[in-house]
Amino acid sequence: MSIFPRPIIVISKCLGFAPCRYDVGMIQFPLVESMKPYVDFIDICPECEIGLGVPREPIRIVFKDKKRLIQPATGLDFTDKMVAFGKSYLEKLEDFDGFILKSKSPSCGIGTTKVFQDSFSKEYLHHHENGFFVDAVLRSFPDLPVIDEKHVDDPLLRDYFLTRVFALSSFREASFCGKMQTLNSLVEYHTKNKFLFMAYDKQLMTCMGNIVANRGNFPVENAYENYLSLLLQVLSKQAGTGSTINALMHAFGYLSRNLSASEKFNFMQKLQKYREDGSVIFELRKWFISKAEEFSADYLLKQTLFCPYPPELSGSLRIV
Ligand code: SF4
After folding, report:
1. What is this structure's pTM?
2. pLDDT value for 292
3. Which end of the chain is more exposed for a tag (fewer CB within 10 A), N or C?
4. DSSP characters for 230-274?
């Protein structure tokens, strides 16, 4: 089985790191605790960073002539301060793999924040806005995984998020790792992710394979740069059911001659169930791992499609 690198995730500080909300609150977030053995976190509270203390009067997004960050109790406008902070903080950030941010916040919310037409109205215009820090994140890193604490509680969305985060972190490790970039590390990386990328986009996976083959004998740095751009593309949309089944069938080809008729039937039934319910993917992964172990199919055992991140992170983890 593969050894996982440690991804680095930027996270809203109030998600289990410090009581930094306006009312000195903190969200109990068991997922963070379960992730700590496998992930490094960089926690950040944008509102504290721009000098708003704890406790503080709440701020809100107001849309009049443009989107503004207003503190109704004082009438102060923090828009420029927050925009400047987001830009300078993110410019300095290096070597990380994704974000987990607090929903509904005027700073950290991802498409879940309320917008008001003025400082005092109780009725909001809509509740699908991004917080100001998130605007900066999406501007600076449009290709990186970004999720909030509500969506990461959904097993399939968490699966997609973690798959991307671990794939990116593993690529960082292959590309740097304190040593010279070599084509061999890229070949190794592509080989173990081949079925995973096939499940996301077979055409892009083939293009990535062509880069790795480097028939034009281009400098290694160019190969890494071109490969990364396709890697970000291939992971930018969740894997479809049809393309995942296609990848699973390819993998099945490595096992089928060892399987009895009833084992083959059993697999086809699971595949049928998966068409109707995406969460059957977890069962299918386990099935592949157990069969690959039984028949010593080492090539399959190395494939991240069956174990894209530490399995301990895929269980049901409720937010309190
Ligand atoms: S949501 Fe963001 S800005 Fe608000 S307390 Fe949490 S970390 Fe700070």
Report:
1. 0.94
2. 97
3. C
4. HHHHHTSSPPPHHHHHHHHHHHHTTTGGGS-HHHHHHHHHHHHHH
